Amino acid sequence: FESLMTGAALAEVAAVDLEGLPSGLAECSFTLACDVDNPLLGPRGAAAVYAPQKGATAAIVTELEAATAAAIGPLERACGLALRDRPGAGAAGGLGAALMGVLAAQPRSGIDLVLEVCDFEAQLAGASLVLTGEGRLDGQTARGKTISGLARRCARAGVPLVAIAGSVAEGSRPLYALGVTSMVSLVPGPMTLAEAMAASPALLADAAERVVRLFLAKDPQNS
Question: What does pTM read for this prediction?
Fold first, then answer.
């Protein structure tokens, strides 16, 4: 059965046994670095939001949703916690719910954790411009992903932030309110995804140059 543990196979989970966990786990605390706040199920859940991004059809999404709904009950009973509606439970295809249930992991914004570790506030001091990137900018980006965390800090510091992405899609405009100054697509014209991926280093260099040229034209003293 273990070799067949796919998304669809979750529908066959009847019970979860946590008795075999190492006893030392009880003395440990776990932090779940999570960049999204999606619950496990529903229109904002793991299957509905993330499966289509990986190529799932509507039929596959329906199957994954049903399988996940069947599996979460046994896990909740085993750990004595309500997990399905917790923010972040739908992260990584439902791994968030599993870690919160099995390891009692406490979810925390992944970008906040990373920015603290790298002392981003100190790095930002004295900066004139921040460039960041993302594969796709859309409505999900504003819900806790890397760019949203950077945008809030840059806005507080009064430093412009430009996001360069493979695509700037519908639903990305709320990022402006968070502190993103501008969003720039890597793709200069019509091309296939395969072409864009193959040329991504050159496209990234070109997009970054365009952004910096505009910035220097506005503030030539920074040149």
Answer: 0.69
